[in-house]
Amino acid sequence: MPSPQVPESGNAPTEFLISEEDEEFKTFYPEIQSLVTIIVPICFGIIALTGFFGNTLVILVVLFNKKMHSTTNLLIVNLALADLLFVVLCIPFTGTDYVMENWPFGDTWCRIVHYLIVVTALASIYTLVLMSVDRFLAVVHPIRSRILRSKKFYLLYFSLCLQYKYIYVCTKLWSYHRYALYHNYPFNQQKYKPLGVTMVTCCFKNSNSFLSVADYQITFFAGSYLFPLMTISGLYLRMITRLWRQGGDIRMSVESQRGRKRVTRLVVVLVITFALLWLPIQLILLLKALNLYHATTKLKVVLQIVAQLLAYTSSCINPVLYAFLSDNFRKAFHKVSAFFRQVIYSNRCQQTTSLAKDIRKNKTVRLEGLIF
């Protein structure tokens, strides 16, 4: 494939980054552009709306229901908050980038958006790790772990995690830049753009960072996916024999055992869902960084887009899982739904009553006019 040629002008060619990912994607983009610019933003819009209302509902239900102020639900609120920040601050800009040919938000927001994507991803996976640790302690060491499972301990953990994420993700913040790309594909110029047309994209540049693209992606894959899931798997392998063994703990009531099993099942489903939804994009990004994956066919381009959509779906799927797997959340959702239905019904009744009064008043005025 012919390489793009940078026109000889003011800023030297060494100052411009030709993004391999963008180059490969844009080459085949024209043939599916009409579908991508319609379907992908619609999918992002559905994810954003579902994630916004679903995660907001989860946060409100837990905060305003004192009976649900448990440590597990505190972690669920943290997870919902991370997903809410993602759907509000990241998805709209990514969706716009699919529609528009150039990155329109400037260099600063290019850095911030990718910074937030990594921060929220790390917040989600490490909240799931802590939820798994909480389940492990509750099942294996239910008495001795009461102090460790307190809200104060979790707040301390969150503060330490925030410091870690700030230091780690700073490399991401300073490694993304907005750069001009010059496309010059003689075999594709009629379908795409004339020779020498300038394009602008938000992409990774390693010249100002101590990490190369491959180094960064390997570190991100290990730190945000492989290591957390290995930790979670180890915890559950250790816990499963204790949790499901015959007879159970004689000091624990049958109802208490059932409750712990239900909570543990919910956490397991959350972890598996997160792992499956993020696996495709994690593998693709890792292979691309290692120069083992090139989007040189329409199928690979579509696979990459679908993988990104699946990863973003993880930000809106959790409230649905709570509704199906948690009796407490399902009952709370029904109460909130009933409350809003009652408010809407009351407003309609007030409007109907007010309208009826206006009609009667108008009739009286007309009659008085006829009498006089």
UniProtKB/TrEMBL annotation:
GO terms for cellular component: plasma membrane. InterPro entries: GPCR_Rhodpsn, GPCR_Rhodpsn_7TM, NPY_rcpt. Keywords: Cell membrane, Disulfide bond, G-protein coupled receptor, Glycoprotein, Membrane, Receptor, Transducer, Transmembrane, Transmembrane helix. It comes from the Eukaryota. It is a multi-pass membrane protein. One of its GO terms (molecular function) is neuropeptide Y receptor activity. It is found in: Cell membrane. Its main location: membrane. Residues 54-322 form the G-protein coupled receptors family 1 profile domain. It holds the Pfam family 7tm_1. The chain crosses the membrane at residues 38-63, 75-95, 115-133, 154-174, 216-237, 266-285, 305-325. Gene3D superfamilies: Rhodopsin 7-helix transmembrane proteins (1.20.1070.10). Belongs to the G-protein coupled receptor 1 family. This is G-protein coupled receptors family 1 profile domain-containing protein.
